[in-house]
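ugh ok so i messed up the first submission bc i forgot one of the chains. this is the corrected input, ALL of the components this time, i swear. 320 residues overall. if the numbers dont match what u have on ur side tell me asap before i send this to the collaborators (the ones from the other lab, u know who)
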Amino acid sequence: MTTDFKTLPLIDVSPLLEKWDDPSMAQDKGVADVVRQLGQKGHGIPDSLVKEVRNIAHRYFDLPYEEKIKIKLSATTGYRGYQHVGENITKGVPDMHEAIDCYKEVKKGMYGALGETMQGSNIWPSHPPNFKKLMEEYVNLCTELSRKIMRGIALALGGSPVEFEGTRAGDPFWVLRIIGYPGVSPASGQDMPKNDIGCGAHTDYGLLTLVNQDDGITALQVKNVSGEWISAPPIPGTFVCNIGDMLKILSNGLYESTLHRVISNSPTYRVCVAYFYEPNYDAVIEPLDACVKQTGGTTRFEVAVYSKHLVSKVQTNFIY
Ligand SMILES: N=C(N)NCCCC[C@H](N)C(=O)O
Ligand SMILES: O=C(O)CCC(=O)C(=O)O
Ligand SMILES: [Fe+2]
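and heres the new structure output, hopefully the right one now
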């Protein structure tokens, strides 16, 4: 539920990580505490890796354009690869960021017609060396962590711990966006028309997002129910979590997929590595019975096929 928050809640999920696969986890006091709070800290992904992922992203974005464009994103790469500043569009306005988009592999013929647009495997830069290995390790750890957090969310929603396993998200699709926001020069004249929208207001598409952002720069903002933009500053050792559109539907609106945006007005280049935990690619998503019961017995959302939602977004996100 979106509330009139002024700061973002912070939660230690370590009790959940200990008991995540225990059949009686719902009775555990520590798990119950996490379930009550929800958010994250004590997440178990080594801080060294979290930092190294941002560090290697900086080194890639520092390369000359000719080098970066070797892995150019297009429809033929399954929307995987590099996009230059201004090529991603949100609500018709170009975003002031560059990025590498990565998706879980979709093999030829997988998911029939549903799989065609996103078919492909990731294209990785050859510089800096180790980029692929580091990002794949990071994705694996984020996937494990998200699966555990989703067990906690399932309980928080009044369901069984495994609501998000099986055909809903037992074989979760994932997205990784490695994003760079160029610094803005304070010298650029005040009368210059300047776009400080690093990323326009949007909601994320899937279940849960783990945002790994550079220290020291506040740029991400989340909209509360009163319509105010609340900053989500970087806190070392934590991820900012967004709820995605599919979890809004599953929860029948008990959880909102919160609008957020990135304002780029820092003189310093900012990196963010956003990991998106999504339903099974072909999952048919509808409100959970437990959530419908708690919200007056009426289904508030249409049934959605996750990959159709993803494809509709991806196909309108780029200038090409
Ligand atoms: N895979 C995810 N969630 N990507 C989020 C990107 C948000 C910006 C995009 N242009 C949009 O309008 O959605
Ligand atoms: O840069 C950020 O902090 C967030 C990026 C974001 O919201 C996204 O890529 O979906
Ligand atoms: Fe986002």
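quick check: The pocket of L-homoarginine (ligand 1) is lined by residues 88-90, 175, 177, 199, 202, 204-205, 276, 313, 317 (CB under 6 Å). that seems consistent at least. The radius of gyration is 19 Å.
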